[in-house]
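Worked Example 4.2. Read the sequence first, then its structure tokens.
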Amino acid sequence: QTEAVFKVWAELTNRARLANWLPVFGRGSAFMDKQRYAAPKKKGKHAVEIGDHWHVGRNLTYRGWHMLSDADYWKTIVQESLALRPGDPGSMSLYTGSDHEHRKLAQHISNEVKKQKRDPKRGVSDVWVRKGDQHWLDALHYAFVGLRRLGWQPEV
């Protein structure tokens, strides 16, 4: 998957690249991720932007820039935002769509849930457990990260 994403990115025109179009990847405790997010402590040749649970870094394998996000953190933000009453600070409302579209979106968003896991050596930690497709949850989390990079701050 990563190779395909960077291939598309490499084929973008210079204009699109200059507009800061970047591949985005989440890192977290879920099934396929297994690679926890590690925030860089300072900017340097491998991290040119550092934000709130995200950073823009260099991918040495594909010789390109990418944005990495803390998937566990941002999926929590998405799910908590949807759980708030519409209009309340920090809430997220759904677009006008058919019942079928809303059911499908709700299914994707709820197909991954955060649970606590007890490890005798590390204590209690949060893990995300998947029970089906959750691509739209990933898409929402990437949208939140992109908005944050562009300076958006949710109302709290």
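Now turn to a second chain, presented in exactly the same format:
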Amino acid sequence: HSLIRHTIMKKIIIALVRTLQLALLVLVFSTCKKTNSPTALESDKSLAGSWKIIKVLQNNTDITTDLDISKFTVKFTADSYVLENQQVPFIVSKNGKWAFNDPQYPFTVTFNQEGSPTTVKSDLFFPIVGDTRQLTITFNAGCEKNVYQYTLAKL
């Protein structure tokens, strides 16, 4: 008789626990509200400011010390550039306009020299190294066999 009573009580307790679990589950799901969390947007990249050459590769050979790059700078504004103390071959030889292919995720940069109907495009590498933004562009200066890669750092 006691064993039957114990078995019945155990079944009742299990049923109550399952009912309570189901009630809590319903309560949790009925109180969840779908919220629209804001999507984080990547900020537009900017070249604004003055940049100096810190490394020059010619056909993957470091020639930085073979050139006097100490005075050369390029100053970028929102959409234009000015070459200052140009003593080394560069992707362009005159001042002009520039643009990224995508302002948030740039993979190429295009230069358009003053007075030129054509543009010059370069693949772009735009990392932050240490605490300094760098810009790496690749181009040839007239000879298809000589590929230059300039790494510039923001001043």
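Notes for the reader: The chain is about 20% helix and 35% strand. The mean pLDDT is 87.
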